[in-house]
Amino acid sequence: MMDTMAKDTLFLISPGFEDPKQPGVQFVCPHCNQIEGLLAGFPQLAEKLDIHRVGFQRPREAVIAEVGEENQPLPLLIFAGDAPADAATHGDKRFIQDTKRILQLLAERHGFPHLH
Predict the structure, then answer these.
(1) Which of 27, 30, 66, 112 could make an SS bond with 106 (beta carbons 3.0 to 4.6 A apart)?
(2) Are 97 and 76 in contact (CB under 8 A)?
């Protein structure tokens, strides 16, 4: 039987991007990279999420389609079901954009290791 349960959605900036202001230099988003490190260390846990990596440049159309133009900063965790009380709202979507809070929620909701 296929699991059709909706998953929380995680948006991250794809690592190794260039900033047009500094051509030829590779960058990573320090906030997204904290989560990327956790995903790399525990790849089996990534299956519990719907993960989308998007480019650094704005507009980030995939993010805008989910939570609006004003909520493009990443990382971004959108809740498929119950959301914590501190989640922001856009239409019927509930989400968190704070990296530390996202990491805490990944541990609580999906069994990721807790930060110490």
Answers:
(1) 112
(2) yes
> CA 84, CA 8: separation in Å to the nearest integer?
13
Reported as a single tens digit per residue, the pLDDT across 2-49 is 445 789 999 999 999 998 899 999 999 999 999 999 999 999 989 999
Residue boundaries of the structural domains of the chain: 8-110
Q: Which residues pair with 13 in a beta bridge?
A: 54
> Among candidates 8, 21, 31, which has minimal Cα distance to 78?
8
Enter the pTM of the model. Answer: 0.92
What per-residue string of b and e applies to 84-96 under the rule 16 or more CB within 10 Å gives b? Answer: eeebeeeeebbbb
Q: Give kind and range of the element (H or E) at residue 41.
A: helix 30-41
> What count of residues does the chain have?
116
Whether the ω angle into residue 23 lies within 30 degrees of 0, i.e. cis, is no
